[in-house]
Specification:
This protein is mainly α. It contains 15 helices and two strands. It has a two-stranded antiparallel sheet. Helix 3 crosses helix 4, helix 4 packs antiparallel against helix 15 and helix 10 crosses helix 14. The longest helix is centred in the first third of the chain and has 26 residues. Bound molecules: acetyl coenzyme *A. The site of acetyl coenzyme *A has 19 residues, from helix 14.
Length: 359
């Protein structure tokens, strides 16, 4: 048996043609194209096409008219439950029982609908009714339509923020949620099951749940006016600074610069305090772990940018999921082509054979 690696760190579990971040973090490329070339030039729905079909056209479609059965206003759990429900509502075929074309089309329908579910759930949370399809159709891009459905209006700066955020976070190799999606797909389950499993994996604070915890940190620093003291206290109490550190990158996440730049362009009120906290956090983390590079990750300036677009912290894990539908779809399709069940091994370290009376 091969060597055991806690957290599977460094283990190569799949081969992919979609994207994989490099350790130095110089750039992030989708199917070879640097995301710097995409942001501001093609909207998210076409980036979906690049990732899934390796072509910009036709990209992700508009969502079909569909009313989710029971929205609570808690977007991450609404998204997970309603995506799973679509498997039966739409009678999706098991991946193992259908061809690549149908899997691709199921993923396109699901991706579009998942965006609509989050927008509708957010409207419920705000005590509003989501806008109908006829109204939403006025929007040009997926980001604009998302905001129109959720809020009934779409500020151009907010559209720009969300489109940029979605493109930057659309895909990132074999992260925890994508691995979850691929494992589920590898069993031959349907696409709704694979996508909803991925939503669950993404909701944790060590993965997509981090931005929700960044803003309270910024509030605390703004109140105390002492970023260095805040960071020291947090680390002394064995806390983690959200938005820093990454399993793969040992340098600043390339997405972080794009998100920060966009936050600057649209005039984020939190940028100053974020920069002060970032500077203090990087210095203190370096002091404490000089041999282990912990840099700013995508979540830190995602939180700042989403805040500038008036996206409340509770909604950020679901926003991340709406972005990642592209990456998950591309990987589920790639997994369909691979067709091999993912089933690693565990090394048993429990008690030896014994009788029930010994328990
Ligand atoms: N704050 C404080 N200490 C940290 C941080 C952090 N943000 N990140 C890592 N460390 C420390 C750990 O405490 C650990 O120290 P120890 O060896 O003394 O126990 C050491 O660095 C290594 O940490 P691991 O968790 O083993 O490193 P890993 O590569 O698995 O960590 C992770 C990656 C989980 C993202 C981590 O950096 C973290 O918890 N960051 C904060 C949460 C966060 O920002 N999550 C979003 C990640 S990006 C994404 O998923 C899209």
């Amino acid at each position: 048996m091969s060597e055991f690696k806690p957290g599977l760190e460094g283990v190569v579990a799949i081969q992919t043609e979609i994207a994989e971040p490099d350790k130095e973090g110089g750039a992030l490329r989708y199917r070879g194209v640097d995301i710097e070339e995409l942001v501001g030039k093609v909207p998210y729905e076409k980036v979906w096409g690049l990732l899934v079909d390796e072509e910009l056209e036709p990209g992700m479609p508009d969502p079909e008219t569909y009313e989710p059965k029971s929205l609570t206003g808690n977007a991450p759990s609404d998204l997970q439950a309603e995506t799973a429900r679509l498997s039966s509502e739409w009678a999706l075929k098991k991946i193992v029982d259908t061809d690549e074309r149908e899997v691709r089309d199921d993923l396109a329908r699901l991706s579009a609908q998942m965006m609509s579910i989050v927008a509708q759930s957010a409207a419920v949370h705000d005590g509003r009714k989501a806008a109908p399809d006829e109204f939403v159709a006025q929007g040009d891009t997926a980001a604009e339509k998302f905001l129109l459905r959720w809020r009934g209006e779409a500020d151009p700066d907010h559209v720009k923020a969300i489109d940029t955020y979605w493109i930057c976070t659309a895909e990132h190799g074999l992260n925890a949620s994508t691995f979850t999606a691929r494992i589920t797909a590898s069993t031959g389950a349907d696409c709704g099951a694979a996508m909803s499993a991925a939503v669950g994996a993404l909701s944790g604070p060590l993965h997509g749940g981090a931005p929700a915890r960044v803003l309270p940190m910024l509030d605390a620093v703004a109140e105390s006016g002492d970023p260095a003291g805040y960071v020291k206290d947090l680390l002394d109490s064995k806390g983690r600074i959200m938005g820093f550190g990454h399993r793969i990158y040992r340098a600043e996440d390339p997405r972080s610069q794009i998100l920060k730049r966009t936050a600057q362009e649209i005039g984020s009120p939190r940028l100053e305090v974020a920069e002060a906290l970032e500077e203090a956090a990087l210095a203190e983390l370096h002091n404490r772990k000089p041999d282990y590079v912990i840099a700013t990750n995508v979540e830190f300036y995602s939180a700042v940018l989403l805040d500038a677009a008036d996206v409340p912290p509770y909604l950020t894990p679901a926003m991340f999921a709406t972005a990642r539908v592209a990456g998950w779809s591309a990987h589920i399709l790639e997994e369909k082509r691979t067709g091999r069940l993912i089933r690693p091994s565990a090394r048993y370290i429990g008690p030896g054979a014994r009788s029930l009376s010994a328990v």
